[in-house]
Amino acid sequence: xxxxxxxxxxxxxxxxxxxxxxxxxxxxxxxxxxxxxxxxxxxxxxxxxxxxxxxxxxxxxxxxxxxxxxxxxxxxxxxxxxxxxxxxxxxxxxxxxxxxxxxxxxxxxxxxxxxxxxxx
Length: 120
Description:
This protein has about 120 residues and is of the alpha+beta class. The protein contains five helices and four strands; from the N terminus they run αααααββββ. The chain has helices at about 15-20, 25-35, 50-55, 55-60, 65, and strands at about 75-80, 85-95, 95-105, 110-120. A four-stranded antiparallel sheet has the order 1-2-3-4. Strand 2 and strand 3 (about 95-105) form a beta hairpin. It is globular and about 35 Å long.
């Protein structure tokens, strides 16, 4: 999958200390997460259904999850391919808190799902 974003390093403490390179899925997920923290979303990355979901109100209400601050790590913990769609699963780790981010990416690279939930 070609990322529509430039490939900057995520601003996370653990990968910088451990010198672990981020995957393209991690880079894109972190960029979207940081955008949501700022109350914005890059619609060029989204499939029509997900773009419709991220109304201005939905972007504004995503801030409580993203407003926790900068995570310690944001890493891909799994991946599945279903009907040619990429389904990476990422772990977002804060001190004392873990979240799971599940994405669903079409072959053209557009995101159909970007779901943040408490880790089980």
